[in-house]
Amino acid sequence: MKLIQKIEDYTILYKDSRSQIAEFLIHNKDDLNNYSMNDISKQTYSSKTTLVRFAKSLGFSGWKELIKTLIEEIRYEETHYSAISPNIPFDKNDSFQKIVQNISTVQIESINDTADRIDTAALEEAVGKLIGANRIVVLGMSPNNLLAEIFRRKMATIGKIVEVAPPGEIGIIAYSLTNKDTAIVISYSGNDVSREPMKFIPDMNSKGVKLIGITSDGYNYMRQEIDTVLTISSREGLYKKISNFSTEESILFILNVLYACFFSTEYIKHYTYKLKNSIKLEESRRIRQMDLKE
Predict the structure, then answer these.
(1) What percent of the chain has pLDDT over 70?
(2) Which of 57, 119, 207, 225 is the most buried (most CB within 10 A)?
(3) Whole-prediction pTM value?
């Protein structure tokens, strides 16, 4: 998750000085160069020590490092993306045509951002883990498990069976895996160790299960525990948004890339298998249609 989204989340998660500081940074993000630490301290009714604690809670060594990183991130956003927010891409006064254009822009930018962030070395490792797996299982909460169903179906069309752990059974599936299996773990934040599917990562690691993580940018628990990670476009916040327009598109794109790269490892074999079975399925559909007509 990007720094700006983490700061936005503080405005909801906390009701103390952290929320006040976060609100100030969000509302004045385009003019942060004009404010000294002393200025921000006065305007947020916080001590300089509190500002330093705020920065450290976000993983920085101090206030200056936080502000420098935040300004750099804001400049990158301004030069690489449109002004349309992935969190609130339309408002109550926008026409349907405007909404269509804005959602299109958000999703295209999400795919482009995801493509730019794909580490080809990590991608090769991930595909290798899929190739050698006895079982492939996708672990993720809704709606990530729903996106995984599309991946499961695509892999099935080339003869590779993928399981998607159903809600309430992630633990059962995770505990059943061995060192011959591969698990794809999907979580946007990748941080809450007490929640599924992250809570099962230590057990899977201890058994030698091959893990592929799909999570947001930046340091988090999943990146610490999983050595093969693919990065979701990380421009959405966890709370202040209309829907997961950007995140869902990003996750689906990563899963599509995994499928395509897996397909390419034995291109002729997979294409032949898919074509052969497509013809068989189409023939069976035609027979059923003829039976119905009779």
Answers:
(1) 96
(2) 225
(3) 0.82
